[in-house]
Amino acid sequence: MNKISIIGSGFVGSTTAFTVAMSGLAKEIVLIDINKDKAEGDALDIGHGVPLMSPTNIYAGDFNDVKNSEIIVITAGAAQKPGETRLDLVKKNVAIFKDMIPKLVSVNKDAIYLIVTNPVDILTYVTLKVSGLPKHKVIGSGTVLDSSRFRYLLSSHYGVDPRNVHGYIIGEHGDSEIAAWSLTNVAGAPIDHFCEICEHPCDGKFKEDIVNEVRNSAYNIINKKGATYYAVAVAVKRIIECIARDEKSILTVSSVLDGQYGVKNVSLSVPTIVGSNGIEKILELPLSEEETRKFNESAKIMREILNDVGM
């Protein structure tokens, strides 16, 4: 990939720039922040390591420098504070995006826009509506990280490699997210069956504890260190990798749905094929009746928030 622009050089943006540079995915990385000194400092700091990794030209710029970028990653916005939910951020960040997105699109309407700023589902929807871009070019980082946390916790419980655990967190990236237990398996065995094989307890309390730990992970980290950024950056890098290499991998990114599971006109995360065109195909995999009900509840919450902000 030739060029990636990252809007926002805070904890998440700068760590994403470092992770992408280390991966060798882009020949050129532009960091853009309202605090130009911060962006310049981050670009210099990462750039000094370039002789020790893949050649990458990383520098600080402004909105005009997004020209010719194949992917524009947006991490800019008000930060989540201790005790504040992702949805508390909505009005502040919707206003920021309504101002910022048209300016970016006026310079580059051909890029894939990857939204990371929270609340990501709301802002993915806002980006699509104010940009006029086709649906497949607007992607939210969604529950890619939540699904990774889910797999990590399950792998710890069973004592197996997390790469052999397959499962998804779907819906909102936030408090109404859902664990799709009906789709979860280890080494191809449905989760309940694997519990019998490995002789680990997997009663209802086990599942409830796992979901609560996934849901509260960000809050716990924020309370301990003020922000989350390492695993977020790895999740963003993984999405970029799928696009750059046209992998057609299945990730739980967020996008505006068009009838999947009976949901329209909101952005939520479901398993999605991601490739060089961005959203290649949104999958509607079979969920249990309870999971479908919870997914629709999550959609209802998102729609109410969108209505509140005039979207």
Question: Would you kindly provide a written description of the structure presented here, covering whatever features stand out?
Answer:
The protein is of the alpha/beta class and 311 residues long. It folds into 2 domains: 3-140, Rossmann fold (3-Layer(aba) Sandwich), CATH 3.40.50.720; 144-308, Lactate dehydrogenase/glycoside hydrolase, family 4, C-terminal (L-2-Hydroxyisocaproate Dehydrogenase, Chain A, domain 2, Alpha-Beta Complex), CATH 3.90.110. The chain has 9 helices and 16 strands. The chain has helices spanning 11-23, 36-47, 90-107, 120-131, 144-158, 191-198, 204-225, 230-244, 289-308; strands at 3-7, 28-32, 57-61, 71-74, 112-115, 138-140, 165-166, 169-170, 178-179, 185-186, 189-190, 249-251, 254-258, 264-269, 272-275, 278-282. The strands form 5 sheets. It has a 6-stranded parallel sheet, with helices on both faces.
The rounded distance between the terminal residues' Cα atoms is 34 Å
Look at the structure and name the CATH superfamily of the largest domain: Lactate dehydrogenase/glycoside hydrolase, family 4, C-terminal
What is the topology, as strand order, of the major beta sheet? 3-2-1-4-5-6
What is the CATH topology descriptor of the largest domain? L-2-Hydroxyisocaproate Dehydrogenase, Chain A, domain 2
How many beta-strand elements?
A: 16
The succession of helices and strands, N to C, reads EHEHEEHEHEHEEEEEHHHEEEEEH
CATH architecture annotation name of the largest domain: Alpha-Beta Complex
Count the domains: 2
Residue stretches low in confidence (pLDDT < 50, at least 5 long) are none
- Number of separate helices: 9
Report on the biggest sheet: 6 strands, parallel
Helix content: 40-55%
Overall pLDDT: 92
Structural class: alpha/beta
Q: What integer value in Å does the Rg equal?
A: 19 Å
How much strand content do the residues show? 15-25%
What is the 3D form? globular
CATH class of the largest domain: Alpha Beta
